[in-house]
Amino acid sequence: MRFFMIATLCAAGLVSGCSSGAKDPTIAAVKGKVIYQGKPVPRAIVNFLAKGQPVANGSTNEQGEFTLNTKGRAGAPVGECRVTVMAMEAAAASGSAPGAPAIEPGSPEYLKMQTAAPPKAPKSLIPTKFSNAETSGITLTVDSDPAKNDLIVDLGA
C-alpha cells in the first residue's frame, strides 16, 4: 500500500510536468536600428535583457535594422531592458573552395597549410564595452504597445 501511494505521487508529479510554474513573459513586437558614429551597424547581434525574464535577441541586416525574438516568439519582454550589441568584421574565408580537389597529406600544399599561422580573430566593429550588459550603458524600454517599439540603439560617436 505504501509503495502504491509513493508511486501515485511520483506519477502525479510527472504528469504535472517539469515547469517551474513561471508563466511566459508578456512580450511585444520590437524592431529597431543600431547606429554607431552616425552609420548603421550591419551583421550585429542585439540582445535585450529584462530583469528576471528570458533574453530577447536578433541580428541586424546590412542597413542595421533588427527585429527581436524571445524563446521562439516574436518580440521582447515588456519593461526596461539592458541592451548589448556585438558586431564583428566578417571572417576571411579559409580552406579550399567547395568542389576543389582534396589536399593530399604529405604534399607541399598540405605541409604549407600545417605550418601557416592560424587565422586572426575577427575584429570588433564597435567598442567591445557594448557587448556586456554591465558596461554597455544602454537601457531601453519595451512598451506593451508594439507601435511604440520602433527603437534606435545609438552607440554614440
What would you say this structure looks like, in words?
There is one protein chain. With 157 residues, the chain is α+β, with helices and mostly antiparallel strands. The protein has a domain at 25-89 and 122-144: Immunoglobulin-like (Sandwich), CATH 2.60.40. It has two helices and twelve strands; from the N terminus they run H-E-E-E-E-E-E-E-E-E-E-H-E-E. The protein has helices spanning 2-15, 108-115; strands spanning 27-28, 31-36, 39-40, 44-49, 56-59, 65-67, 69-70, 73-74, 76-77, 79-87, 139-142, 150-154. The strands form three sheets. The protein has a six-stranded antiparallel β-sheet, with no helix packed on it. Strand 2 and strand 3 (39-40) form a beta hairpin. Residues 1-21 have low confidence and may be disordered.
Features of the shown structure:
6-stranded antiparallel sheet, 157 residues, 14% helix, alpha+beta, 2 helices, Immunoglobulin-like, disordered N terminus, 12 strands, 30% strand
Mean pLDDT: 82
Number of helices: 2
Shape: elongated
Broad CATH class of the domain at 25-89 and 122-144: Mainly Beta
The class by helix and strand makeup works out as alpha+beta
Which strand order does the major sheet show?
8-7-5-4-10-11
In helices, the fraction of residues equals: 10-25%
Measured between the Cα atoms of the first and last residue, the distance is 73 Å
Give a short account of the largest sheet: 6 strands, antiparallel
Low-confidence stretches: 1-21
The CATH architecture name of the domain at 25-89 and 122-144 reads Sandwich
Q: Which H/E pattern describes the elements?
A: HEEEEEEEEEEHEE
Radius of gyration: 24 Å
